[in-house]
Amino acid sequence: RGDVIWKSMSSETEPGYNQPIIFEAGGVRQLIIFHPQGFASLDPVTGKVYWEIEHRSQMGIVVATPIKSGPHLFFTSQYGGARMLMLEGGKPGAKVLWQGPGEQDQEFTHDTENTLNSVISTPVMDGAYVYGIDNDGQLRCLDIETGKLMWKTDALLKEHAMYGTAFFVKNGDRFFITNDKGELVMAKLSPKGFDEIGRTTLIE
To answer: What's the rounded Cα separation, in Å, for the pair 55 and 1?
Structure first.
């Protein structure tokens, strides 16, 4: 049988769809929780809450896994938009470095540039940039430090696709990307743009 080791935080709101993930930061292992009411960091051994940042996302749609690169921790969701956190170095702690609107925000339109509101797909951080698929199936590149949009393109899915999705795996200097059209795409991603090397159909 499984014994309960610890309990932590309230479960009064809906749980969302996100998986907890552990990162090393601030000299400790941190269990990062992305739920419909915000972001939290816990001690994975005791359940002690290290820090919390409120960020409410409508309909509980928080799917994309948080990603970390150095001191940067990135969250994205369809309705909540983008949040880049800066993690403290000497102790567990975090602050919002920049934010971009999502569909729940009044200033959001489908032409809003400096944001990434992923529905399902988990973005990637590579070097000084974030790459990911937004709500329209558009591949976007944002600057890690500022959130500024470097470029956007429909070339990955080859259509403007509402809720379009793709998943990224880096190997060497290139990415292997599977999309929801059943294709495997090999490409290089850089602040200069999307450079497709080739693609093949895996699933008709």
So the answer is: 36
